[in-house]
């Protein structure tokens, strides 16, 4: 009996097995960042900055300046142009790939196969929706309060946390947009707190220098910490292609397990990790 108990204990302590178990029980949420879309060849934030500066007649960005300047530039763009409509149209045209490209993507195929009941994404593009359509899986898109009230529970919910190209008003793009979201009281923020409170959350495709995501992770920990029931919190995870001792320690303090799979190519590392996870599920 002792060896069996030891094997059970080892499985319980294995973070990937804990994550796989939550997915099997459909008690896990996926949170998807820009790295997943960039795997399909979509432009980077640097390309967005260059486009805005060119359209506004500004000089080239000085080397070494933060790419987070895109939020300030987008704010200036809206002030100068009167709206972000033209910018949104450019992003929609240039951040679009064919259904066949999505269908061929190993990364997007395994995301669909893992069958998360709820997927949050800060990406504006439709690549997740196209992946579900390409592989014949039902989904509902949620980008505003109306969508929350009408969403069916049977299909996977794809929640466009920072907005959707189909609705200019929903986009979180400018500096003001981000500051207004820091209060975390929008309908989608309320939904996320409700969805995440009793579920495991897996974050993929993010740079941990993204302060918005760091604040989201901290708020998730803070909610449980203040509740007095922190020990009962479901496990949450962040996947990164490479180990980082500093980040691992900080995230552990917030109750989030750092997962990594060393590889030269971040996309291959993430795809390999998700395929391993699918096999466990």
Automatic annotation (TrEMBL):
Entries under InterPro entries matching the protein: DHS-like_NAD/FAD-binding_dom, Uncharacterised_Sir2-like
Domain of life: Bacteria
Keyword set includes Transmembrane: yes
Transmembrane segments: 28-45
UniProt entry keywords in alphabetical sequence: Membrane, Transmembrane, Transmembrane helix
Protein name stated in the entry: Sir2 family NAD-dependent protein deacetylase
Organism: Chelatococcus caeni
């Amino acid at each position: 009996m002792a060896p069996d108990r030891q094997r059970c204990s080892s499985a319980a302590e294995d973070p990937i097995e804990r994550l796989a178990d939550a997915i099997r029980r459909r008690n896990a949420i996926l949170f998807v960042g820009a790295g997943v879309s960039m795997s399909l060849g979509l432009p980077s934030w640097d390309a967005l900055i260059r486009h805005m500066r060119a359209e506004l007649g500004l000089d080239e960005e000085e080397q070494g300046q933060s790419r987070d300047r895109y939020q300030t530039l987008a704010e200036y763009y809206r002030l100068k142009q009167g709206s972000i409509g033209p910018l949104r149209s450019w992003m929609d045209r240039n951040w679009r790939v064919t259904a066949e490209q999505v269908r061929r993507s190993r990364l997007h195929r395994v995301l669909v196969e893992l069958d998360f009941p709820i997927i949050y994404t800060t990406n504006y593009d439709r690549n997740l929706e196209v992946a579900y359509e390409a592989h014949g899986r039902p989904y509902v898109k949620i980008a505003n309060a109306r969508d929350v009230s009408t969403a069916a529970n049977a299909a996977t919910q794809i929640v466009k946390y920072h907005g959707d190209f189909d609705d200019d008003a929903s986009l979180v793009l400018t500096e003001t947009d981000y500051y207004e979201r820091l209060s975390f009281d929008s309908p989608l923020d309320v939904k996320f707190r409700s969805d995440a409170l009793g579920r495991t959350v897996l974050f993929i495709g993010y740079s941990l220098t993204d302060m918005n995501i760091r604040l989201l992770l901290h708020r998730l920990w803070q909610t449980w910490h203040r509740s007095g029931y922190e020990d009962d919190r479901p496990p949450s995870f962040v996947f990164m292609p490479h180990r980082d001792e500093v980040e691992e320690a900080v995230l552990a303090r917030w109750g989030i397990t750092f997962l990594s799979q060393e590889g030269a190519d971040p996309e291959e590392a993430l795809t390999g990790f998700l395929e391993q996870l699918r096999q466990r599920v």
